[in-house]
Amino acid sequence: MSLASVLRRTAVATAVLGLTLTTASTATAAPKRPVVNAPVTVNLTVQGPASTLFSGSLSTTGHDVTTASGGTHHCDGTNGGANTTPGATPTAALDDAAHTQGFTWDGTWYASFDDYFVTSIASVPGGADAYWNISVNGTPIPVGGCQFRLNSGDKVAFTWTEL
């Protein structure tokens, strides 16, 4: 075998190996993951039996929430396996508004549901004859307030509702 033939085979083998390694590293590179739990801006309204208790725009994310009767629990849309990635939720938005605007809210934590049941907002209880309905964009949510993921621009409402 001539020296030229050996050099040619070596060059071809090196090129094939280089292409193989380049292709393999590109194929196995982790895909870019979307940003999760990024802040979203929503419009929140809290409508009590006689007046609007809060109405405004706020930036929120999913986060741990603490209530007097329910304790501290995550509230980021992954509750109950509802979503695989965390994000802003109606209950987290209510909690953010309460902290920034100086009103209180309370909710009972149900471990079997992995969510809070809102029992009072700004000292206005639901009680035996009413409850706090949660809706997004005018539609009652089909899951708990820590399970429903919000999008930027959503209109979130907690409305005192008679039974």
From TrEMBL:
Entry-linked InterPro entries: Transcobalamin-like_C (IPR027954)
Keywords tagged on the record: Signal
Pfam families for this protein: DUF4430 (PF14478)
Transcobalamin-like C-terminal domain mapped to chain residues: 111-161
Signal peptide span: 1-29
Domain of life: Bacteria
Region (Disordered): 68-88
Keyword Phosphoprotein: no
Name assigned to this protein: Transcobalamin-like C-terminal domain-containing protein
